[in-house]
Every structure is written in C-alpha cells, then in structure tokens.
Request: fold
Amino acid sequence: MAGEPEEVWLDHTLRVQTEYKKELTFERGAQLYLCYTEGPDTQHWFVTDKQLTIDFHLLTGTGHVVVAHAYQESDFIISEQFQCDAEVLRRVNEVQGATNYSLALRNSEHVARYIYSGAWISFQMRRGGSLRAKFEKQMTKPVQNMINTKPKELEEKEIVSEEPLYPNIKSDYIQFRSYPALLWNGGRDSYNIVILGPTGSGKSSLINLLFNQTVAKAAPTAASVTRTVNYIEGTYVGSKELKHRLEVDDNVKGIPEYPISDPHKDFPQFPTKLCGDG
Reply:
C-alpha cells in the first residue's frame, strides 16, 4: 500500500464538486444498510438501500468521488441497519460530490459512518487499527491530531462562551477543555459522565450548568436541538471535600478497548428506553 503526501492530509477538506451531486438519493423512511467489503489491505464501506449505493466510488479518469450509483449484488457484510430520515438525507447531501479522498483521513468508512451517525470515524484508523499502523510513522504530530476529526466543511461552529453563566461561582464546577472526537479506555484517572433523557428534557442545559458556561447547544423548545452523541471534556475545579464525596468504584467490567461511537452497540446494558411503561 502506497503512502500519502503530507499536503493531502493538511488539506483536510471534502472539496465537493456539485456536478457529482444527484437529486435522487434515498427515499425518506427507507431501510438503509451500513456495509463493507474486505479487501487485501483495507475495508471498503458504503451505505445502500439495495437499489442505490452511496460511497467513495473510484471513477475512471477522475479518482475517488462520493456518488450515488446503482446497487450491485456483492459479497458484503452488513454492519448496521437504520432508517433514512431528514438528518440522514442532510448528511448525504453534505458529503455527496466530495473528491478529496485520503485513505488515512477521508476514506470510505469515514463517509459511510458519517451518513449513518454523524460521526467522522474510521475504526481502521483508531489506535491499533490496520490503517493506523501503516500511516502513523509517516505522520507529524499535527497530522496525527487530525485523525478521525471532521473535514473543515463539516466542523460545527464553536459554541463555547467564555462568559460564565453565574459569575459568582468560583468553585465546584467543570472547567471546559475540548470537544474530543472519541472516548478511549485510557484515562483511568478520569470519570465519564453520561447525560441521558428524552427529547427536549434539558440535557444540554444541565451540561451547561455543570460547566457554568455555554458548551452545548440549548434552546427553550420541546424539539430536539442536539441530534448526535457529543463528547465534552473538562477538569473539575472544587474543594477536596467534594472530590472525596465523588469517589466511586472504578472496577468497571466490560469497557471496550476501542473508540466508543455507538453506546447501544458498545454497551449491551445501555438503556434503550428512557421513559414509558416498558
């Protein structure tokens, strides 16, 4: 497998060309499949409804382009099944026509998983992944920091407000650090806090209160504002007494040694119903 020049990595953009966009993609409500095939050096990922397929397709004389094309029967593995909704169609539109292919930073798995979940992730490029091992020694530190991060066109606008929500609070809050792309089972001196709740219940508002600043999108509405799993990293600032009260048993079983992108898949015991009678 040939390497890639650093300028390909540093230009972390999709370079969408509108002539490759097609109005006809998937129908809303259709059953979709996140799939891959095994190659000699890498996996090829795609999304299909078994009529159309969208992937980073190799076009003769052009190179890899994200396009919709006719479905072809092949020996592939179905990773996930999901329903096409407005958010999926929006993500398809965002990546369709992308031409700036990179096996390390913008490959077929990145595109397919982004359509599926909104997360720009290739497990082949995680620590210990097959592609990571082939590229990591060539990469400078700034390029390594770009692994599994969204291209510029897909980056969400910075929403962190430097102004505290309550200026008089000087202790017992979480100081914002960053928005990590993935969680890793490495920070044993840290705690992972999962905020769950029905749509419009105030999860983002609660997170902002914990940080005492705006770090998550929130709005006074019953409609959904945050539509994907997001990670926010911070450092606790407070008294030793409260730190002592927060100590918990860290002997947790079953935490995976790979990036966590889908809590329901990675943790079978993860609650799938948040309200109701069953």
